[in-house]
Amino acid sequence: MGVDFKDLVPRVEIDFSRLSGKVIAVDAYNALYQFLATIRQPDGTPLMDSRGNITSHLSGLLYRTVNFLERGIKPVYVFDGKPPELKRIEILRRQRMKEEAVRLYEEALARGDLEAARMYAQRTSKLTSSMVEDAKKLLSLLGIPWVQAPSEGEAQAAYMARRGDAWATASQDYDSLLYGTPRLVRNLTISGRRKLPRKNVYVEIKPELIILKSTLESLGITREQLIDIAILIGTDYNPDGVKGIGPKRALRIIKQFGSLEKALPILGEVQFPVDPAAIRELFLKPEVTNQYSLKWKMPDEEGLVEFLCDEHDFSVDRVRKAIERAKKALKTLTTQTSIESWFG
Predict the structure, then answer these.
(1) What is the mean pLDDT of residues 326-330?
(2) Which of 27, 104, 295, 313 pairs as cysteine with 49 (C-beta 3.0–4.6 A)?
């Protein structure tokens, strides 16, 4: 879910040229779920190989990553580790939502409403451990670095950006800001022409840049206060937040009283299922690792063909063309930066 900051945080549409030459730490799970949701058949069925293995995420990961390289972006994908115990309620909530989506999907199919079926199918996406391992294998064969986070992927990506190992993090969720990323890029994995649900209308989705320092200055708050606002409206660690409080009201309350603790007397009989101090600690001091290496390499062409085509029934011609595009992009990038800085 992530925290709902869309009506609070200023966002600026940017052109891909702004990201050229930059290392972007991509929230891998967020990206893979986007691919699973959007890359589907007209009736909502995901892409699958002849053995019944879902391949939508691999298709999206391959072609979107090649597209990044062609635009001069140096991606590194960051994978989630073990979720914090405080996230258990949110995980259970998501499972219930997927179960309900499955029921609605089956009902839509039964009445022949394919558009509704596809919409509900997008909410049923599940990312299994084998799918994650396949994604990591694809990236390794493609020569793209990936990092295994000990816990939350967004926290790890934000840590890498704060260290200067990445210019920004990329995710649809705003939580990266709470973890302290200096820059957040949204829409990176879903940019392009998209059809609006249940409408014969297409829109162009462009990347959006959010700068943490500018955001805090424009709102007149600190990062700690931004976290308090998030706790009031709901985070992955307390999904329900405080009833009746939205982003703008939460901002007014925190700016008036300075902190969540000082605002408690005016909130009435509020019972937080999780200690707000514990939530704040997770955002300010998340579990991360500095044990990673960022090296971009030339793709293993035959390894990719064997993995994608022989094992998962991808088109040999399309895969080889994608590999050639990746190689060409990498060669172009090495002329813009030193070989040492690019290949590590």
Answers:
(1) 94
(2) 313
Distances (CA, A) of 216 to 97, 163, 164, 232: 33, 20, 20, 17
User: Would you place residue 17 in the very low, low, confident or very high pLDDT band (cuts 50, 70, 90)?
Assistant: very high
Is the confidence at residue 191, as pLDDT, over 90?
no
Angle formed by the axes of helices 260-267 and 223-233, to 10°? 30
- Angstrom distances, CA of residue 279 to CA of 40, 231, 246, 259: 36, 8, 18, 14
Contact 282, 84 (CB under 8 A): yes
Nearest Cα to Cα of residue 22 among 65, 60, 87, 71: 71
- What is the tens place of the pLDDT at every residue in 292-322? 999 999 999 999 999 999 999 999 999 999 9
CA distance 209 to 294: 23
Alpha-carbon distance values, 154 to 148, 169, 267 (Å)? 11, 8, 30
Closest listed residue to residue 8, CA positions, set 267, 255, 249 = 249
Among 153, 154, 158, 98, which residue's Cα sits nearest to residue 123? Answer: 98
Taking Cα atoms as reference points, which of 75, 3, 23 lies closest to residue 230?
A: 3
Q: Taking a C-beta distance cutoff of 8 angstroms, is the pair 47, 97 a contact?
A: no
What's the mean pLDDT when you consider all of the chain? 88
119 pLDDT above the threshold of 50: yes
Q: Residue 270's closest CA among 245, 294, 249, 307?
A: 245
Around 114, how many Cα atoms within 13 Å sit in the side-chain half-sphere? 5
185 touches 170 (CB < 8 A): yes
Across 94-116, average pLDDT:
68
CA distance 254 to 261: 10
Rounded Cα distance between 41 and 168, Å, is 33
